TrEMBL record:
<keyword id="KW-0804">Transcription</keyword>
<keyword id="KW-0238">DNA-binding</keyword>
<dbReference type="InterPro" id="IPR036388">
    <property type="entry name" value="WH-like_DNA-bd_sf"/>
</dbReference>
<dbReference type="InterPro" id="IPR000524">
    <property type="entry name" value="Tscrpt_reg_HTH_GntR"/>
</dbReference>
<dbReference type="InterPro" id="IPR036390">
    <property type="entry name" value="WH_DNA-bd_sf"/>
</dbReference>
<dbReference type="Pfam" id="PF00392">
    <property type="entry name" value="GntR"/>
</dbReference>
<feature type="domain" description="HTH gntR-type">
    <location>
        <begin position="15"/>
        <end position="82"/>
    </location>
</feature>
<dbReference type="InterPro" id="IPR050679">
    <property type="entry name" value="Bact_HTH_transcr_reg"/>
</dbReference>
<keyword id="KW-0805">Transcription regulation</keyword>
<protein>
    <submittedName>
        <fullName>GntR family transcriptional regulator</fullName>
    </submittedName>
</protein>
Length: 247
């Protein structure tokens, strides 16, 4: 590959910009930033990520398609590298602590448009008193025990990128039922790769356990934070992990 020297004698890649973007994106495909079968962000988001125009991104994507690394359907581009399609781990049910993948008897969920707690605002990078979509979930067993409560706040990024979430703003009055159990599927469908960090603590002088989950995307942008309280004296919170294969 031809290279030229800059005034400070540092080598400069003289290849077309779209080829350099394609090379960077190829590296992200191979390192698992975008897993096999996973959706890529749209052209606008990729252009912002690489600091180039959408036309440059379009040319880079076409190059990767010709190389067999990407496939495109009506929903956009997805990774065509060999490997298993990404699964939705049981531990990533929305919200954290939900008893089942789908709402069931004893579950209650609503959404409101309001300023989140200070802790949530800081984690999501929101200005103080700036309103956002807040989801509240409560659940109890048939006998009224094993109570769980979860409060989730969504970031400005999540609302801008995920149309299904943004549409709740107009009807987020805090009273109508609003089960968002597919929230993580919606995020993945928008081309976001989800990463999460859970912090688990036992509340002093109580039998309650607190779980704080922060979810961010492949660009380290926060998407949502959930604060879950579980009555550990009457219930158990089960986590499932998938260990990497030995090799």
């Amino acid at each position: 590959m031809a290279r030229t020297a800059s005034p400070d004698h540092s080598p400069v890649d003289a290849s077309p910009l779209y080829r350099r973007v394609a090379a960077r994106l190829r590296g992200e495909l191979h390192d698992g930033t975008f897993p096999p079968g996973g959706r890529l962000p749209g052209e606008r988001r990729l252009a912002e990520h690489f600091g180039v125009s959408r036309e440059t991104v379009r040319q880079a994507l076409e190059l990767l398609r010709r190389d067999g690394l990407l496939a495109t359907d009506r929903r956009g581009s997805h990774v065509a590298l060999p490997g298993p399609a990404p699964q939705s781990p049981a531990s990533l049910a929305f919200p954290v602590g939900a008893r089942a993948a789908r709402p069931c008897a004893g579950d209650r969920a609503t959404v409101s448009w309001e300023p989140p707690s200070r802790e949530h605002a800081e984690a999501l990078g929101l200005a103080p008193d700036r309103p956002t979509l807040v989801h509240r979930y409560t659940s109890s067993t048939a006998d009224g025990g094993g109570r769980r409560t979860a409060v989730t706040s969504f970031s400005a990024v999540a609302l801008a990128e995920v149309g299904e979430l943004a549409r709740y703003r107009g009807r987020a009055d805090g009273s109508a039922s609003a089960q968002l159990w597919r929230a993580y599927d919606w995020m993945r469908g928008a081309g976001l790769t989800l990463h999460h960090r859970d912090t688990i603590t036992r509340l002093a002088d109580t039998q309650a356990v607190r779980v704080v989950r922060l979810v961010h995307d492949q660009y380290a942008r926060p998407l949502e934070i959930t604060d879950l309280l579980v009555d550990a004296g009457q219930d158990a919170l089960v986590y499932e992990f998938t260990l990497p294969a030995a090799g």
